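for the writeup, i need someone to sanity check this before i put it in the appendix. the sequnce is what the collaborator sent (i think, or maybe the updated version? ugh). structure was predicted straight from it, no edits. if anything looks off just tell me and ill rerun, i have time this weekend
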Amino acid sequence: GDTDGGSDTPVGLEYDVSKLPEMRKAFDGPAADLEPATDRWGTWLSGYAPIKDARGRAVAIVGIDVSLAHLRREESNLRHEALLTFIHALVLAVVASWLITRALLNKVHVFSRAAERVRAGDLDFQLASSGSPEIRRFTEAFNSMVRGLKLNHDGLMEQATRDMLTGLYNHVYFQERLTTEIESAAKLNQGLCLLVLDIDHFKGFNDTWGYSIGARVIRQMADLLRQSVRPGDILARYGGDEFAVILPNTDMETGRAVAEKMRKTIERY
């Protein structure tokens, strides 16, 4: 039979297959012509398969002729479908690439802005964790880095404002804070007291017992003063054996009472 609606070859028609090697191979298994053949009905490619009897012996073959024009139409359709598939895949790939690139650039902009804020000194800033697992891991690493910077910064700032011997505020911080408290008291029309004190005869004590024992006395004095100040008072080591206390929002009478409490605490000790 053929694929273009032509006449079927009558059953039982004899063929001389001596010059048709592919047709002869069909008795051993399926075979097909390697080259198309042309006759009065057109140009064809033929395929064959054996017909076997009950014992499995090939006793005949069946063949089908496929028009070369039909094959070319099918090939053209396949090429057309393949081209459309390729174009669709290419468009999808471009769109997906654009979306992924846009998402990544958005994240890059977010991290860039975050880095600028941290560089400007905003060490309390933290990025919200969102996106893919990789982005979330990067976000957590960034936030962890900022927390570490903040801890280091706070530690350095704390060290810079503290006296190494006593742990009280140092002279530099005291001066800065005194200026701030004076301005605040004037603005709010509040009282402000300042206490300045030193240890009696400390130079003679140091000369007699040595600087190591003198340092212990200064530390003991700092501990006693801590017990006497109120929450919100600013206690500092002014230098040597001198100490200073800023009493915000305090009138003269209250300031005298705080000073007397300190004196009595040291006297009892």
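The two ends are 125 Å apart (CA to CA). Helices lie at 21-25, 68-119, 133-161, 171-188, 202-209, 211-228, 252-268.
thx in advance!!
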